Amino acid sequence: MPVAIVTGSGGLIGSESVRHFVEAGYEVIGLENDMRAGFFGPDASTARTTAWLTGRYGKEFRSLEIDIRDADAILRIFAESAAEIELVIHAAAQPSHDWAASDPQTDFAVNANGTLNLLEAARRHAPSATFIFCSTNKVYGDLPNQLPLLEQDKRLELPEDHRYFGGIDTTMSIDASTHSLFGVSKTAGDLLVQEYGRYFEMPTVCFRGGCLTGPNHEGTRLHGFLSYLMRCTMTGEPYTVFGYGGKQVRDNIHAADLVAAFAAFHRGPRAAAVYNMGGGRESNCSMLEAIELCQQITGRELTWSLDSANRIGDHRWWISDVESFKRDYPQWDIAYDVPSILREIHERNAERWVVRV
């Protein structure tokens, strides 16, 4: 049976990858040590999802409590299954701008050194395995904020004749910009993945994601805005919007759509591939639009406030150009838009996220 190794297997993208590839006939080895609970508190723990996956899939899924910073442990795991490993999905990360600034060394060790440990283990023991890296649009730093945006009633928007109106592609520079420390550590990982692909001729890909979301997302104040926004609307917790008058725009891609892209790439892998990956023009919203949708879906008013200070390196507008991936993998397309994503988050969490008195 072919083996897939999934890091961060209890998280949003990791858990969806486990589900997809177990059901596609793989034995999946998950590497998950629930650092998310340490980063963001017990409400963000991945333990519940890991327990659910273990119970559902039994012997076809093994969850190992491994820290990706432990190079020796990573090498040992790859060596044990070397002949069967066909796929590596690296979804583990420290994912927050704000948290990274509080502990830059841990952030870099997880996002950069952890990625290097996995690449080196793959090079030594499974060099022909497809290596998929969940990168980020923060590799471009705050350069998107130099775009000539127009202010509309509920969002910022590019002129229709602008080259990036359909979405930002990989021609945008990553230099001369403020990335945030999180952006820097993820950029280091991104470049390592590309270099191992080119230098060692390994099938690698960086998916530079916008906002990744879905019903399994344990959204928190510092990460996972659609999930956390819906949770606050449902429970009555206050929500704070940071900067830009709430008109900042994000594209949002459902975890299932992203993992479908992983599967498409794995069927026809290339060396050192890079794609911007998000909801594109089919699935995007501003903060104000997302608040309005959450209120419509729940029938509740959200208690929210605006902090005029934006987060360092935060984008005013981001929509990914997904057309380059569609050209290379024409069987793939977006299945979820923002309203359908929010409805699913609401339905899946209706019993958990109740009004707090």
What does this entry look like structurally?
- The radius of gyration is 19 Å and the shape is globular.
- It has 357 residues and is an alpha/beta fold.
- 39% of the residues lie in helices and 18% in strands.
- β1, α1 and β2 (27-31) form a beta-alpha-beta unit.
- α1 packs across α9 (255-267).
- It contains twelve helices and 15 strands.
Distance between the termini: 51 Å
Give the SSE order as H and E letters. EHEHHEHEHHEEEHEEHEEHEEHEEHH
Specify the biggest β-sheet: 7 strands, parallel
Number of β-strand runs = 15
Q: Structural class, judged by helices and strands?
A: alpha/beta
**Cα shape:** globular
Helix content: 25-40%
Strand order of the largest sheet: 3-2-1-4-5-8-12
Gyration radius, in Å: 19 Å
- Kindly estimate the percentage of residues that lie in beta strands according to DSSP: 15-25%
- Give the averaged pLDDT, no decimals: 95
Count of alpha and pi helical runs: 12
Low-confidence stretches: none
